[in-house]
Predict the structure.
Amino acid sequence: MAKRKNNEKRMKLLMGIINREDEAKFSEVANEYCASLGYSTLGFGTARSNYLSYFGINEIEKRVIMMLIPDVCEHQLLEALGRRLRLYLLGRGIAFTLPLSGISSIVSGALSDSADRNEKQGDKGAHVQKKEKVHMYELVIAVVNQKFTDEVIDAARDAGATGATIMHTKGLGNEKAEQRLGTTLKHETDTVMFLTSHEFKRKIMEAVRDTAGLQTEGGAVIFSLAVDDIVGIGRFDGTDESAPED
């Protein structure tokens, strides 16, 4: 039998922006459904009080989780995270997946092999209905001079964003890029993430560019990623706020 090729196409990046106390449960649920490789960092949330934020930001500190998973686990894992972390409640957080264009073959092989065994045995991650992806949501990311973070958030809100997650970051060895861009990038930066519907992506990116883009003192580098699947916006699968945990 021919060896399966392009294993990297079978992997996804799962991201979670959740309350600090839910970090261990997030990892526990992921490992119930598949072998996963995850990392966590501290983020900060901000949202207008009347929104309560799609990101679940009614608290300041958040855990931002990045996790590599096999795509055969994607749908049911997201459903389980939605139930077990009660992401159908406003203020609890959000989880979503992003496509990968490449990954280490060692990592892909190890995680995918585990998913293949589960599929053959009829485990939880096996029964996934393959369907054509329609990208309804986008993750807009802006890396900006920390002094302009508030202005970026205000501009994005005016353009339709309902919340943001902020991670404090710093520039690393950007001299060659700065020469080509014709500008100096600030060393101390904030990475600001906006999850938005596809219709608002361009408006938000343009608003951030006009307010604090590369041609301004804000020096923002702005890009977006298509989101494949998501739980945690408003209700979860039509359930109400009293829906039980697993």
About this structure: The chain has a mean pLDDT of 80. The first strand starts at residue 11 and ends at 18. The two ends are 40 Å apart (CA to CA). The first helix runs from residue 23 to 33.
